[in-house]
Amino acid sequence: MTHHHHPAGLIRLSQQEAQHLPVDLIAYPEDAYLVVDPYAEMMPTVESWFQLVLEAQHSLPRPLGEVALCRPIAVKARHLMRMVVLDFERLPPLRVRILEGALQEMFRQAARLGARSICLDRFELLEHSISAFKLLKMAVQAYRRAFAPSVIANELDGIILTLTPGPCWRRFEMAVSHLERDRK
């Protein structure tokens, strides 16, 4: 068995729902008005939901590029992190520079939290503005910058990308194999 790891070996695709994965951290893209928020409906009570809405009213839109820890309710992950990278009032809604900064910040925080397994959820939302390959390449670069080589060499658990089955699955699958080829 060879021990030099290709970074694409870091990325695994999964069709499981992110909230069921026993990972250290789930990170997902969000828009400035938190419209996307896939984890909002998992809030436990009407009161806390109402409280959230009140808080949100004071603070929308969120600044682009913001990376924030959310309360991980009803997910197996220890941490939940949203990356505000989309602005549906602009065209294009995604700016690559903002995504790049947010990915770097997210992995930096993940490293600080001691996260070993990281799930990227709902990233197909970004595919309208950036190719799957470019997206994964950017994620791997940010990941390598944030984590010490010794940690990466110990293989962590790498990055799990959760996707719904369909055309985007195939595109991300191709992107992963291209990334692997790129490294050889």
Please provide a written account of the structure:
The chain is α/β, with parallel strands linked by helices and 184 residues long. It has one domain: Leucine Aminopeptidase, subunit E, domain 1 (3-Layer(aba) Sandwich), CATH 3.40.220.10. It has five helices and six strands, in the order ββαββαβααβα. Strands 1-6-5-2-4-3 form a six-stranded mixed sheet. Strand 3 and strand 4 (79-86) form a beta hairpin. Helix 2 (96-112) packs parallel to helix 3 (132-146) and helix 3 packs across helix 5 (167-183). The protein is globular and about 50 Å long. The relative contact order is 0.23. Residues 1-8 have low confidence and may be disordered.
Task: Provide keyphrases for this structure.
Leucine Aminopeptidase, subunit E, domain 1; alpha/beta; 5 helices; six-stranded mixed beta sheet; globular; 18% strand; 184 residues; disordered N terminus
